[in-house]
Amino acid sequence: MPPRLSPLDASFLYLEQASTPMHVGGVSIFERPPSGFDYDALVDLVEQRIALVPRYRQKVRHVPANLARPVWVDDVDFDVAYHVRRSALPKPGSDEQLTELVARLVSRPLDPTRPLWEMYLVEGLEGGRSAILTKTHQAMVDGISAIDIGQVILDVAAPSEQAPTNGRHPELWMPRPEPTDVQLVMGAVAEAVARPGLVVETAVAAAGDAVATVGKVAGGFAQLFSMARAASRRAPGTPLNVDISTQRRFAIARTELEDYRRVRAAHGCTVNDVVLSVVAGALRDWLLSRGEPVTASSTVRAMVPLSVRGEADVPSTATAGSLGNRVSSFIVDLPVGEPSPVVRLHHVTHAMREHTASAHSVGADTLVRIGGFAPPTLHALGARAASGMSKRIFNLVVTNVPGPQFPLYAAGARMLEMFPVVPLAKGQALAIGLTSYDGGVYYGFNGDRDAMPDVDVLAGLVDEALDELVGTVS
Questions:
Q1: Domains of the chain from N-terminus onward
Q2: Residues 433, 444: contact at Cβ < 8 Å?
């Protein structure tokens, strides 16, 4: 029988609704190389590399009557040109035009009858640049062989050192025949006889049990206790928790990693603490710009997924597949009512130290050393941790993933920037993702189109919040 989806992976299919499509995305900006970079080159590159991610040529097949969890089957009609698409911006090709296009593309659900991913080459950006947008369903990033299609098309070699791909024939792929309904039913019955507990497991997944989902992602009784304690305290009331629509808005912000490092060194904290303090400062100014009541005790509760792993779990020969789903989710009250940037930073630092004292956080250097590491993978795992949780527990999700501090290339085109697109959970009007890469820190703000018409205002306040903190460094 073909491989069956895990209970957690299946839950993302069962929980998906029109207003909460369960795909994670990323937008990468590329510099056009002298040799050119076009749609044909991207399709050729994907064809060469897709054998490294066999799941991307498979689709989900449901078992009749839901007798068991769905299975992954080869798509005998797989067409790479369907999944790799082309778009272009009208002149002048501004950031605003790009983010509007990204918002519209990520609002569309993936076709459930095909492999659950899409990639768009967006041409016509200012300065001769291009962008690549990827969309991958969270069921694909299974936490065991966690890897993203946007990861395998990137190279660390300079363009002159890359072997040409044009004209090279892709590896011959022979899909396995798709099982019939009778075969799927017989397989489900055989498993039920061999593993009686599977029936209960399937029922729990089909019901979309949020506690089971969080438990599998967060891991461990200590984490469940932490979540239960957070659930006992209702999240603060903010304009971020509303019934959301099917459409999105997207905004970006660019900052310099060196600024975060300076603040970290001066105040004895982590870069992640500085990031959360910047987010808190930007949210404070945004709430004030809306005329929302902000008092000294006002907070916004963030769910912060962090990759955790003991040192023994990071072998020198680690691969992307060994990254696993070691993502722990922390609840942090961001002190948006505090006017002092230094006091905000100290509050966040204290809260994060309490959380991480019982967990093994993975440092940025360790993540970069893991072979095949790519930020979209961990952003996807972080989004999985948030998707099944109630809006009663937290107000928004903030994922921060350190990326490589050296340039990456796709078919000879140098990647200049990378912006995560974190999906919205039910009742969540905003999700913030950020990635550090090659000296920069890049924010992606994914917001509900109706509830967040001013998401670009929030993105623009990031620079001001960071400048406040940098101004405290002597």
A1: 7-183 (3.30.559.10), 199-232 (no CATH), 248-313+324-403+414-471 (3.30.559.30)
A2: yes
